[in-house]
UniProtKB/TrEMBL annotation:
Lineage top rank: taxon: Archaea
Keywords, sorted A to Z: Membrane, Transmembrane, Transmembrane helix
Entries under InterPro entries matching the protein: DUF1405
Regions crossing the membrane: 31-50, 70-86, 93-111, 123-141, 148-170, 190-217
Statement: the UniProt record of this protein carries the keyword Membrane: yes
Protein name in UniProt: DUF1405 domain-containing protein
Amino acid sequence: MFASSTLPDREPLPTYLTPVPKTLEDLGLRFAWLVVAINLAGTAFGFWYYGPQLGETPAVMWPWVPDSPMATLLIALAVACWKLGYEQPWLTSLAFFGNVILGLWTPYTLLAFADAYSYLDPLMYQFLFWSHLSMVVQALVLHRISDFPVWGVAVAVAWYGSNLIVDYFVPIAGGPHHTAIPVPGDEPMFLGADALGVVAAGEVTFALLAVFLALAIRVKKCEAARGGAPADRVGR
């Protein structure tokens, strides 16, 4: 557990696991409450954005529909818990997974269906694109506040695995519950895939990436601890 008045150390992890410059990481951690506020504002905007789709979705499936605002809510809660001195590994893992997966999936989808998204105001298109990429950046700072224990990663895998299932494979109530895309799901795309297959492939890929990154961070931290790093630095 970390004191709220100090910044956790940055361990010497491989660059592919810590691509965000230390200066930027320190800035985000130093202004953690601002990060929380920005993410809560993004959550509110996201739920507003999903309003029409939620209105057409059975209430029982609502938790699985507004993926991006749920991800920003999770990271706001995870950072707030850390700042208060009560970091919750399961919550931080959920936040990491959500911000990696949705932070990449949305720009990927905006590019894959760029022509069909022409109805969006150009400023809104750019906002959606870059604000979601910034979700990935903030996710990649979470290694400073958690060591991603296997049980915490398991919680995230269970939740986002269920999300994949109801989004694309077993819709449970009504049609698929993925974020609405601007073309029919059976619209032919490329390499023989239809539109639903394209967005599903993207989300599966980014989910696997999140699993790899979280477990790789865990492994490298454990290796550093066994190699002689002070035990109390594990997870910093």
